[in-house]
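== Item description ==
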Amino acid sequence: MIAIIKDGTSQETIEAAKAKLESKGLGVDITRGTSRTVLCIVGDTKGIDIDAVKALPGVDDVLTIMQPYKKANRLMHPENTVVDVKGRLIGGKKIAVIAGPCSVESEAQIVGIAEDISGAGAEFLRGGAFKPRTSPYSFQGLGESGLDLLSKARARTGLPVVSELMSADMLEKFIEEVDIIQIGARNMQNFDLLKEIGRIRKPILLKRGQSATVEEWLMSAEYIMAGGNNEVILCERGIRTFETSTRNTLDLSAIPVIKKLSHLPVIVDPSHATGAWWMVESLSRAAVAAGADGLIIEVHNDPANALCDGAQSIKPEKFSNLMKSLKDIALAVGRDI
């Protein structure tokens, strides 16, 4: 439920309406957009008299939200959310580009790649320290030492770090050493983990589950936001279909759907979606054209010998050329890169 505030209403009157609603056991957030101010009301609103809410001083109208996700809903927050990560924005006019290897393998590898992608224009460094793998015999990542190497790469280049959290046991370490905490597709509906990261105040990159609907994806975001952490970035990374020519099927239609339903920024991972390096460039262009707020691209200096997902990784020089080619696409849709 949202209460739309009349233009010119004083802050004191708005706070009084908020306090009145909170006295009934409801959660209330004040959202101020460029065109209007609204009170976002969450909780058990079934027994709330809408006419009584309309009668509150300063309230112009009341709208009910039919979708189960409330805080992630665009009705609650008409303006696009922009997530600020150390002064670098995700969700604004500029397309945010996150790049780096699937897994951190050594100091020379991660620092070298970080320097290459920074020079090409990337603003964030990705790298897996803990890797969820289909096979228990596959490389599982360097663990905590991988996070330490990511910190060294950040110190060398200034790039904020993105890495995947697998377990709440490592949350404190991630809070210290990671700038954007990634929740992978396999953990999208790990609700206990989502509740834990909802309690912190750090940007979260939430990947879409392999078989998740858009509503299920947004409901996972809702778990995080319900805990008070509103800095959520959604990531479309392909979904499982009957098609076998690619690892997954990249759902580009999810971008305009998310833009319609939610205020949260959405980025695209063409690397995991396809599993093939030669498709990354064309799908990156398509994602920008479709309105994505950013890209997360796997870059490796030696894909043939990568310990994880080398087949979907592009080399630094290919990444540099891709960044140049994306400028025209971004300009055509009113964005920058």
